[in-house]
Amino acid sequence: MTDNKHIRFPINIAEAQGAYHLELLVGSQQIPLKLLIDTGSSTIAFHPNSYSTDKDHNVAVTQIAQCVTYGIGGWAGPVLNSTITYSNGVDQFEVHDAFFSIIENEKGKNFLNLDGILGLAYHHLNKGYHMESYFEAEHVDETHTYPWAFNEQIQQTGIDAFKKFIVKFPEKDITPSFTAFAEQNVSMNKFALSVHRSIVYVPQNNMTLEQKEAEPLNQGLFVIGDAEAEKDLYVGAPQAVKVVHDAYYNTNLLSVKVAGFDAIQAPPLDDKHVHNFFSNAIIDSGCSYLMLQKEIYQYVINAFKAIDPNFIDFIESFKHSQANQSAYIPEGLNLALWPDLFFTFEGVDNVTVTLRCCPDHYWQLDALGPGQAFFTLLEQIPKWPDQSLIGLPIISSYFCIFDRACGKDGVIKFAEKLS
């Protein structure tokens, strides 16, 4: 990449329906895997459906195990390393001795029909555990975590119990894939996303996957390197939101405003969660929603109700359809009547940054099917800390640059997209 300061990779939302994937090539045989692009995690992990260690001449096994949980989901498996190749069909870049996990046990459906996940956050979220002392204590022949020796244990106790079990062993920080790419391919430690939707656009009945993938609104770009040089993708100067901790692309959300109403101050993260969650908002490309802290969500709902009580009927009808796993096809949903939402964040040098979310981003039309509508504002889920997840509804509103090299923990730059 020394001759190219930036390179584009095509990405698409059609297959996962609510997340974008990048295709990477794994191993010496370059097995193509579709991986969910997630700035809220740091691990490369995938199901072993297509990949075989027996045919990978570059693979090396380790004594490391991983177990990652995502609220109601999670997975566990061994850590290996091999060659991972980034290719856009023209240019190709290899990352040697790249670490990844094979998903051997899983709770829930984590990756929306995709092969696995591509975590783009920092090393903090990519912890593994050396299991050598376990094998010695158990007097077993295994000296590595692959082949996987914990199937029976996890089937008996579950993923969450296994996670509590392995944290007793020596911790190993594993180099995340993008960090390794930056180190080996001189990528300036930056990447960017140019996407348009948070839920797949399906304007016609009976569309094939290939037809959905061909829809321009379902396509996007993942840019590695000097994304500011991509002048045909945005206009004006990008605004920089400060990353306040290098874990989940943590940011400091200051306030939220519904157009026509006074803003509400965003509550700080509750004290008992500061040690593990670090701030009151994260920028998360793996999230199809704007999950708003409960007080913020109620403020937005109250404003909608004040504008027009019928707005709440649309939202409740959508929730009812979701609960019944049925399509929501509303009558009379006129987005011209709904207000813009404004999110103000801490920037750099004492400057604040305000990002706009328009009605056609928090209401996705022709979503999953023609005439269907999908409401992408979500209230803070039970047992979640007082933290908002800023997902695709805002990311897709801008050309979004993750500049990990700027300042202590990086910045996230938002620029007005060109059509």
Structure notes:
The protein is α+β, with helices and mostly antiparallel strands and 419 residues long. The protein folds into 2 domains: 8-185, Cathepsin D, subunit A, domain 1 (Beta Barrel); 230-417, Acid Proteases (Cathepsin D, subunit A, domain 1, Beta Barrel), CATH 2.40.70.10. It has helices spanning 132-138, 151-157, 159-166, 177-185, 209-214, 274-277, 294-307, 310-323, 359-362, 392-395; strands spanning 6-12, 21-26, 31-38, 44-46, 60-70, 73-87, 92-102, 105-107, 116-119, 127-130, 171-173, 190-194, 219-225, 234-242, 250-251, 253-258, 264-265, 281-283, 290-292, 341-346, 352-357, 363-365, 373-375, 377-379, 388-390, 398-403, 411-417. A hairpin with a 4-residue loop joins strand 2 (21-26) and strand 3.
- Unreliable sequence segments: none
CATH topology of the largest domain: Cathepsin D, subunit A, domain 1
CATH architecture designation of the largest domain: Beta Barrel
The name of the CATH superfamily of the largest domain reads: Acid Proteases
Helix and strand content put the structural class at alpha+beta
Q: How much helix is in the residues?
A: 10-25%
Mean pLDDT: 92
Domain unit count:
2
What is the molecular shape?
Answer: globular
Instruction: Quickly name the level 1 CATH class of the largest domain.
Output: Mainly Beta
How are the strands ordered across the major sheet? Answer: 1-13-12-26-27-14
Report Rg: 22 Å
